[in-house]
Description:
One of its GO terms (biological process) is nucleotide metabolic process. It holds the Pfam family HIT. The protein has one domain (about 5-135): 2-Layer Sandwich (HIT family, subunit A), CATH 3.30.428. It has a five-stranded antiparallel beta sheet with strand order 1-2-3-5-4, with helices on one face. The chain contains three helices and five strands; from the N terminus they run αβββαββα. The chain is α+β, with helices and mostly antiparallel strands. A hairpin with a 3-residue loop joins strand 1 (about 20) and strand 2.
Amino acid sequence: MQSCFFCRVIGGEEPAVWVEREEHAVAFAPLADSALAPGHTLVVPVHHSRDLMSADPVALSSTMALAQRVSRAMVGALGATGVVLLQASGADAGQSVPHLHLHVVPSWPDDATIHWPGTPSAHVYDGDPHAALAEMFE
Length: 138
């Protein structure tokens, strides 16, 4: 998909600092001005998938497996004591590039950053949201 920035990166049309390239998923550094921590890495399926909801099982499993290996590398190579995995699907969730991607962000005790939402959603759902979710699986 030529209009997709990540597809152009994967295709070699945009520059990238590669961490790993595999058959179904790749890992590379984000743009320098958007890095959340030293070693912050994007993990992306090779096959274009708009978001989590539209990705096929191979894209999902390959992307998550590579994110796990990147996380382990962050602990081993960078001395990270933990990692934060960030993913947004849909513009209202904050997704800025319409290609499924995971942000793998290393963490250390001296970070003083919080990678968790500070305030809960203000959206009100009339009824039991978990019961509604469970009904979708029946």
